[in-house]
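Support request, please re-run this one:
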Amino acid sequence: MKHRATARHRGQPANPVGWGAVAAGACSVLVAAVMAFGNPALWATAQQVSAQRYAPGIDVDDYDFIDQAAGDYIETSQLACLGSYKAISQVDDEARATNIALAASALDGFEIKPGETLSVNEVLGDTMLDDRYLEAPVVYGVSMQRERGGGVCQVSTALYIASLESGMDVVERHPHTIVVDYAPLGLDATLSYGQKDLCIKNPTDASVFVHAEALGQTVEVKLFGADVRNDVELDATSRVVERLEEPAKDVYDDPAAEGFDPEDVVTRYRTEAQLVTYREGIKESSELLSEDIYLVVIPSAEEAAHQAA
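Re-run finished. Output below.
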């Protein structure tokens, strides 16, 4: 299977010489800092030198990632944070946390070259056949079941929102059928290997790097690349357009197959997601991203028992 984007992960530089240059640069800053210790004026200068190596607004915690992503062919100061999203779930499940960490690690450091497309399914592979992934809650139609790889959609969702706010082109995205707790309605992105994928295309003239980190039930995705937005900011937003409450017989051809009695009241939300463009803080335009419908469900008896255990 041919990947549609080029993976160059942290710890795998294209040219070892580049790492030497990065190390030398880091050492020079360190030496300057050590020499300046105890001298406020020199210490301030050392901090300024370090800050000038990176784009404005870059978190100190991301310096190491940027150094490795830049390698020997990109100036670290040219890699700005284009967009980010932190997805937080309230589900307390250790197996799910393991799956999230595995998926985030697989995407971390991924380079999307100009004009190329990142397929999340191609990067992760079939998680249901991967022994590293554990059984955790997975959405099946209108119910939750425990299957290997449960939770990886939280990672794809964080990537989806970060990509929207970074100005990437979304080639393929699918919503869940039910409400999830780690993203606004209308801004989630589900995965099903061989059926549903999240595909992100880089429309810019420079490489974009994915930085994904997970801790417990939280995952944060940031995209780094050349900032050519010229005071333009993108904001992915959504709203509930309509709340629907109807008998199951009016919603499904076969309510029993979906786990409902014909007269059961089915609650659904119709949503609308938009990408809003701001220029110098003033709203300039908005683009309709999707219109989705979500079902509100109660966890199955099996899942409820597992959560209570």
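Confidence is low (pLDDT under 50) at residues 1-36, 299-309. The helical segments are 16-36, 40-52, 63-70, 94-107, 120-124, 152-166, 248-251, 301-308.
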